[in-house]
Amino acid sequence: MNQDTFRGCLMGGAAGDALGYAVEFMGEAAIFHRFGQRGIAAYALEDGRALISDDTQMTLFTAAGLLAHKALNSRDLPTALVNQSYLDWLITQKGRYPLKPGRYVSFLMGETELFSPRAPGNTCMAALRQGGGGTPEDPINNSKGCGGVMRAAPAGLFYAGEAGRSADAARLGAEVAALTHGHPLAWLPGAALAAIVYEAARGETVPAALAHALDTIDGLWPEVGSRKGFRALMERAASLAGKDMDDLEAIHALGEGWVGDEALAIAAYCAIKYENDMDRALIASVNHKGDSDSTGAVTGNILGARLGLSGIPAKYTDKLELKDTILTVADDLWRAAFPGEDDENGAWMARYTGMIVEKK
């Protein structure tokens, strides 16, 4: 594992998000009519850029909260600062810049391109307007939406520098998702994605990472009734990936991706079937009538952790919006996971110890 792994996870997620964002609310007939037999296979650019959606925005703010926890050596749970970081993100969705005087979690609040609503999820917005702060044990609502899983990948990278931390990654992924999404079929996928990313970043194949993640979840939450159905759907995704069948037919058998378990199942199918081909995996993951940007983002997170940035074709990185910011955050996650490897003498921490905005 090296820095390329961390970059690959976040850049892969952003690439899948940007590819799918252009077709998120399109039916399949419209997608294939507009883009041809393969569907969308390259970015639909706006003003020369491939735009990211709320999925990548919230992934960055997840990472920022975790990095703030590390930089401040906080005694609170990591999710306390993640929740605060999400409240910062909520401000960006109102499109207000410059900022009001105050203290914000990270440097992301100085990135003006983030002050752009990109179809934010209703559940995320409603939960954060209430202050967020849900947990698996004390849910804030009963939402199954995929808004929990689509932003959970940094929880896997957070522990990737240490062996034997898969359960910690899974628990953190669940807690991150549950801040806004209370149903087990929203936060169990968050747990699974974090564990898959953790295992893939440490060199496991995607099928092995998925199997390990499911076993970890069984051990952590044996009393959760939804767990058995969740496992069955994930195992079905892995089984379908081994069959010689049309991708769209397989995806239809798994769902549309608007809810958390279906989004992860579609991503798992694509990442397993095309484990060594990011291009084919991303194309398969977004060309359907469901939540294309989220299924693309999660597929990219998984394969990016597996293949690294060097495994992502240049067509997905050259014109990606906020590319430099995504790389900065990925590199800071690497520095936090491997202190002393390339820590800028600790200077990275300043990006996550509070952005102060003063009165003029």
Question: Which key phrases capture this entry?
Answer:
ADP-ribosylglycohydrolase fold; 55% helix; 2 strands; 360 residues; two-stranded antiparallel sheet
Question: What's the CATH topology label?
Answer: ADP-ribosylglycohydrolase fold
Structural Rg? 18 Å
Enumerate how many helices there are, as a single number: 15
Q: Mean of residue pLDDT?
A: 96
Alpha-beta content class: mainly alpha
Largest sheet: 2 strands, antiparallel
Instruction: Estimate the helix proportion, in percent.
Output: 55-70%
Q: Spans of 5+ residues with little confidence (pLDDT < 50)?
A: none
Please state the overall shape, judged from the principal axes of the Cα atoms. globular
Q: Domain count, please report it.
A: 1
Can you name the CATH architecture?
Orthogonal Bundle
Number of strands: 2
Q: CATH top level?
A: Mainly Alpha
CATH superfamily: ADP-ribosylation/Crystallin J1
β-strand amount: under 5%
- The end-to-end distance, rounded to whole angstroms, is 46 Å
Instruction: Give the topology string: H per helix, E per strand.
Output: HHHHEHHHHHHHHHHHE
Q: Give, in spatial order, the strands making up the sheet with the most strands.
A: 1-2
